[in-house]
Design a protein that fits this description.
Elements lengths: L2 E10 L7 E11 L4 E6 L5 H8 L7 E6 L2 E3 L7 H4 L2 E4 L12 H5 L1 H5 L4 H14 L4 H4 L9 H13 L5 E5 L7 H18 L2 E5 L3 H7 L2 E6 L2 E6 L1 H6 L1 H4 L8 H12 L11 H12 L9
Membrane topology: Peripheral membrane protein
Keywords: ATP-binding, Cell membrane, Membrane, Nucleotide-binding, Translocase, Transport
GO molecular function: ATP binding; ATP hydrolysis activity; ATPase-coupled transmembrane transporter activity
Length: about 290
């Protein structure tokens, strides 16, 4: 599902004394099947951009066109288009409420009138896609899961209806490193297999460069840069003014780059890929490195 913003601005509380501009004159096109990371400081406009694309908000000015349908100050995206969009908001596990994981994951399908057998089949497949064994988790209470398991079950509840556009708002926030890595691995697999259009809001540069084909940098409500992950890495120092903080991996990559500038020809996007690059540089590296 393609997404296009044409001169889009958004003001929260427009026309009131509490009006707060959040997005200003943004124009950008996103092709169907792209994975786009949205980076920037808190309050930079990235979450508002994602909510406008998902039809959760309407622009104050300009047009948002999703799958050929238009949203503007006067109109919302039509229901048939909104049903093709999924949104994973911050801490989605807080929305779990059914008696069992299987019922929770299948909730949206039941509301759409999908037959019970099909609901169960698709709910089991969605659980499997996020790394939760349906045999072990389908009948369990969602309130007896770990934090990471709850997060993955909640994401399965969005993926179950196979949205063509999925918005993720800080999906790894609050997870411990192990749970975060496990979730990222499963999201990578889902993105490769299903090829939805993805808008991925994050503060984590490592996740942006690992998952995305493209990175949009926001600053004070404006689209400040539109780059590939490789371009972001090559010019990282220039983009730090937008609130980007180097992670240990980024610092390690720059340390390598000072001694071996050719690493920037095709920058590794994960610690494992950097380790493989170094091993190959020293001779006889491992094969099958992840890009």
């Amino acid at each position: 599902m393609d997404v296009r913003f044409e001169g889009v601005s958004h003001v929260y509380g427009a026309g009131t004394p509490f009006a707060r501009p959040a997005l200003s004159s943004v124009t950008v096109s996103i092709a169907a099947g792209s994975v786009v990371a949205l980076l920037g400081r808190s309050g930079s406009g990235k979450t508002t951009f994602a909510q406008l694309a998902a039809g959760l908000e309407r622009p104050t000015a300009g047009r948002v066109i999703v799958g050929g349908a238009e949203s503007s100050a006067e109109r919302r995206l039509p229901p048939d288009v909104r049903r093709r969009i999924g949104a994973v908001l911050q801490h989605p596990e807080h929305q779990l409420f059914e008696e069992t994981v299987g019922r929770d994951v299948g909730f949206a399908l039941r509301r759409r009138g999908v037959p019970p057998d099909e609901v169960e089949r698709r709910a089991r497949a969605a659980l499997f896609s996020v790394g939760l064994d349906p045999e072990a988790y389908f009948a369990r209470s969602p309130f007896r899961l770990s934090g990471g398991e709850k997060r993955r079950a909640a994401i399965a509840g969005v993926l179950v209806y196979e949205p063509e556009l999925v918005v993720f708002d800080e999906p790894t926030a609050g997870l411990d490193p192990e749970a975060r890595e496990r979730l990222i691995e499963h999201l990578e697999a889902v993105f490769r297999r299903r090829r939805p259009t993805v808008l991925y809001v994050t503060h984590r540069i490592d996740e942006a460069i690992r998952l995305a084909d493209r990175v949009l940098l926001f600053d004070a409500g404006r689209l400040a840069a539109d780059v590939t992950p490789a371009e972001l890495l090559r010019r990282f120092e220039a983009y730090r003014r937008f609130g980007l903080r180097p992670s240990p991996f980024i610092r390690a990559l720059f340390a390598v780059g000072r001694r071996a500038p050719d690493v920037w020809d095709d920058p590794p996007r994960t610690p494992a890929a950097l380790a493989d690059w170094l091993a190959a540089r020293l001779g006889g590296g491992r094969k099958g490195a992840r890009p």
